[in-house]
Design a protein that fits this description.
Blueprint (H helix, E strand, L loop, with lengths): L16 H13 L4 H8 L11 E4 L11 H13 L2 E2 H8 L1 H13 L3 E3 L2 H6 L2 E8 L6 H10 L4 H13 L9 E3 H8 L3 H9 L3 E8 L17 H14 L5 E5 L5 H14 L3 E5 L7 H11 L3 E4 L5 H12 L8 E4 L11 E7 L17 H12 L3 E5 L4 H8 L4 E5 L10 E6 H6 L9 H12 L3 E5 L8 E4 L16 E3 L4 E3 L6 E3 L12 E4 L3 H11 L5 E4 L9 H10 L5 E4 L12 E6 L3 H4 L6 H13 L10 E6 L5 H7 L3 H14 L6 E10 L2 H19 L3 E5 L5 E2 L2 E11 L4 H16 L8 E6 L3
Parallel strand pairs: 7-12, 7-13, 8-10, 8-11, 9-10, 11-12, 14-24, 15-22, 15-23, 21-22, 23-24
Antiparallel strand pairs: 1-2, 1-3, 4-5, 4-6, 16-20, 17-18, 18-19, 25-28, 25-29, 26-28, 27-28
Bound molecules: adenosine-5'-diphosphate (ADP) and zinc ion (2 copies).
Subunit structure: Component of the replication restart primosome.
Family: Belongs to the helicase family. PriA subfamily.
EC number: 5.6.2.4
């Protein structure tokens, strides 16, 4: 049945065809609804809201021509002030409410607040300039004379003139706000001048986005190896396959990207440059702004909605002077690109490209590849430590491979050594948390006025606290996880739900007072370093110290300018930072990485360690890396030392195949949640049983994950390990049907089930 058109929202489409194709792919591939994709993709001001408010037109004069319903609605609106469509539907019934609204709108009796249009509108500012009546020097002179008795007004006008037409860089108008501030007068004084028709006010549209960078003329020349790599990349693009650039850290990948971007812009096409976390890329953005000025723009979730709308339209309308190159975190894949000429996925191995929550649980790297097909655009995946997925695709010839094995200016890769924590402990040589080798290296570097980066994957002071007498460990009341001790906040914090409580004085079980902290986090390291290196200036970079706006950038800036000698941090310090004077990098405890219970833990350990090592000795001297571990002869550590990605890859891939893991098999994780534990068990079993009928031994679980309860939601997981050759779409349909079926069973109210395709 055809529906009536209620309203035309936009003069032109705000979503283009390429987007719709991509979004449908997302919904299908990641087992979610198209609505969920739309919701994630569009800035909220662009979403149709039935909240749009309706009120009575104050200028409307009632004539006798209104029928009963029309009068009733008008009275209702008058009483309430305003109402939205949903409320009006309830008031009149859906059928007659549309007809009534239509007539009232035609008669101009009501107004529809154009909420959507409002947020499209660019921001305006008030500018002050000379009034038309005062345009010649004589007229200005007259105006000044007329103000002899009004001292303030005369001052303001004199200031205005000195800052505009008599300024050494003459201009015609000034921002009202600045004028008032700088002249130091009140608004009333200005108003007097406007009333006297000496000055006038003009509102001027301005963009919401910071635009003021002009590109530097000067770009670096590529060296010979980089030039060769650039050619190889362009050659590889011609094969119409995604290209993996496997280039060691500090080889100049970013400089090569800049050259590629330059060429694409010259063809008048757009570029999408994806980065794993926008917060961590201030250095990259500076480099791109230097090269492209305002043609390079940033997009991320910290922008407010109005700013996002403005960016959206800049890209949709393909404005040549802004946002031709979009640097963005994963959500930038949803922007309305018209004609992409290049997609770069930097640090393609990063798992932050995957969205965990809410749906769509997509991987932006993989969506980027789909976008490349839609736009017929080259896709470049760059990294020093490829994901196994991408590397396997190279082996299958689905991706092309280009390698870059030389650091810029031939600087050697850092020397990596493994320091045995167990041995050092046995010989009583540990200096607090440092092995003798790390301690000595740090001392040497500091003496030579060089810098140190230390990596520890845990924030807080101690991962947990424990009663020495009975072993009791305080747990979160909402989650099945132990609480982390934060000394600065002098309390225990749950890293899953944020719940805080004070450090107990006594054991919750045996009331002993002997409670001790266990393990160590960044906060404790910072404190201990203060004792070991009292002369050094030490800073900590983790979630706790970078919450405030710009605090991350400030820390980077200070480190760049050597106001900080030692930087201690979580994985934030591993990503893409480019400093000139870092001599030593220390990994305080590799065991936590290696022992993490996940089939990807070796792959990830290698990536993390290789990336953080890459921060050492990028300019000038060769750097040194010390990896502390109590499994000093672990094979993965040896592979990090040798920078032998291939060996790790081959060995691990053998296991992946044997135990049916990606990239050989496709994983789908089904998460089942309920507030009630028994209900959860019941629902999860029902789902697993149903799935086993179809997928048989490809179903694992249900099983509690490492943390079985978060924020009072109990959760279990069911894993599907599907053979890749199988018809994926058909399987997914099966899966979604099974989920719907279980959800609709009696007693399963309150049961939440979702699918996570290619979980990370
Ligand atoms: P990667 O992205 O591979 O880690 P970068 O592009 O960050 O490497 O390069 C490392 C450092 O070397 C950066 O400071 C960069 O500006 C500099 N660099 C790389 N190539 C050149 C070049 N051709 N000319 C001048 N500086 C370069
Ligand atoms: Zn106890
Ligand atoms: Zn919690």
């Amino acid at each position: 049945e055809l529906k009536e058109i209620e309203a035309v929202l936009d003069q032109e489409p705000i979503v283009n065809h390429a987007q719709i194709i991509a979004w449908e792919w997302v919904a299908n591939y990641y087992c979610c609804s198209l609505g969920e994709v739309y919701k994630a993709a569009l800035p909220s001001a662009l979403k149709l809201e039935s909240q749009s408010n309706i009120c009575v037109n104050p200028n409307f004069e009632t004539t006798g021509e209104l029928n009963g319903e029309e009068t009733a609605l008008l009275m209702m609106l008058q009483g309430k002030g305003q109402a939205n469509i949903r409320e009006i539907n309830q008031f009149l019934g859906k059928k007659s409410s549309y007809a009534t609204l239509k007539i009232l709108l035609e008669k101009n009796a009501i107004l529809m607040e154009e909420k959507l249009k409002e947020s499209y509108k660019p921001k305006t500012v008030s500018m002050i300039r000379l009034a038309k009546e005062v345009s010649s020097p004589d007229e200005i002179q007259l105006a000044l004379e007329s103000l002899k008795k009004a001292r303030k007004q005369s001052e303001l006008l004199t200031y205005f003139l000195s800052a505009t037409i008599f300024h050494q860089e003459p201009k015609t108008s000034l921002l009202k706000k600045e004028l008032l501030e700088q002249a130091g007068v009140s608004e009333a004084v200005l108003k007097a001048l406007i009333d006297k028709k000496i000055l006038e006010n003009e509102s001027v549209e301005i963009g919401r986005l910071e635009m003021n960078h002009s590109a530097d003329q000067y770009l670096y020349e590529l060296n010979e190896v980089q030039e060769k790599t650039l050619l190889e990349l362009k050659q590889a693009f011609r094969s119409n396959r995604p290209v993996l650039l496997h280039g060691v850290t500090s080889s100049g990948k970013t400089e090569i990207y800049i050259k590629l971007i330059e060429e694409v812009l010259a063809e008048g096409k757009q570029v999408l440059y994806l980065v794993p976390e926008i917060g961590l890329t201030s250095q990259l953005i500076t480099r791109l702004k230097r090269a492209f000025g305002d043609r390079a723009g940033i997009y991320h979730s910290k922008f407010n909605d109005a700013e996002r709308v403005e960016i959206w339209f800049n890209i949709l309308h393909d404005k040549k002077d802004s946002y031709q190159v979009v640097v963005g975190a994963r959500s930038a894949v949803f922007l309305p690109f018209k004609m992409l000429g290049l997609i770069i996925v930097d640090e393609e191995h990063e798992n932050s490209y995957k969205q965990f929550d809410p749906a769509p649980r997509y991987n932006a790297r993989d969506l980027a590849i789909v976008l490349g097909q839609i736009h017929k655009s080259p896709v470049l995946l760059g990294t020093a430590t490829p994901s196994f997925e991408s590397y396997y695709n190279v082996k299958l010839d689905k991706y092309a491979l280009v390698e870059l094995n030389e650091r810029f200016q031939g600087i050697e890769m850092p020397e990596i050594v493994v320091a045995d924590i167990r041995k050092a402990t046995r010989q009583r040589q540990m200096k607090s948390l440092l092995t003798p080798s790390l301690f000595e290296e740090m001392k040497l570097a500091l003496e030579n006025n060089e810098q140190v980066i230390l990596f520890q994957n845990r924030r807080g002071f101690a991962p947990y606290v424990q009663c020495k007498t009975c072993g009791w460990i305080p747990k979160c009341k909402n989650c099945d996880v132990s609480l982390t001790y934060h000394k600065f906040r002098s309390g225990l914090v749950c890293h899953y739900c944020g719940h805080t409580s004070s450090l107990p004085a006594n054991c919750g079980e045996c009331h002993s007072e002997d409670i001790q902290t266990k393990g160590f986090g960044t906060e404790q390291i910072e404190e201990e370093l203060g004792l070991l290196f009292p002369e050094a200036s030490i800073a900590r970079m983790d979630l706790d110290t970078t919450r405030a706006k710009r605090s991350f950038e400030q820390m980077i800036y200070k480190f760049e300018n050597r106001q900080i000698d030692i930087l201690v941090g979580t994985q934030m310090v591993t990503k893409g930072l480019d400093f000139d004077h870092v001599r030593v990098v220390g990994i305080l405890n590799a065991d936590q990485l290696l022992n993490y219970p996940d089939f990807r833990s070796f792959e990830r350990s290698f990536q993390l360690m290789a990336q953080v090592s890459g921060r050492a000795g990028r300019k000038g001297k060769r750097g040194k890396v010390v990896i502390q571990s109590s499994q000093a002869d672990h094979e993965v550590l040896q592979e990090v030392v040798d920078n032998n990605f291939i060996q790790l890859f081959n060995r691990q891939m053998h296991e992946r195949k044997l135990f049916r893991y990606p990239p050989y098999f496709r994983l789908i994780k089904l998460v089942v949640k309920h507030k009630n534990r028994d209900r959860l068990d019941l629902g999860a079993n029902q789902l697993a049983d149903l799935l086993r009928k179809h997928f048989r031994n490809q179903v694992l679980g249900p099983e509690y994950p490492v943390v079985g309860r978060i924020q009072n939601w109990y959760q279990k997981e069911i894993w599907l390990k599907l053979e890749k050759s199988k018809v994926l779409n058909q399987n997914k349909r099966m899966l979604m049907d099974a989920i719907d079926q279980v959800k609709s069973l009696p007693n399963n109210g309150g049961l939440v089930i979702y699918a996570d395709v290619d979980p990370m």
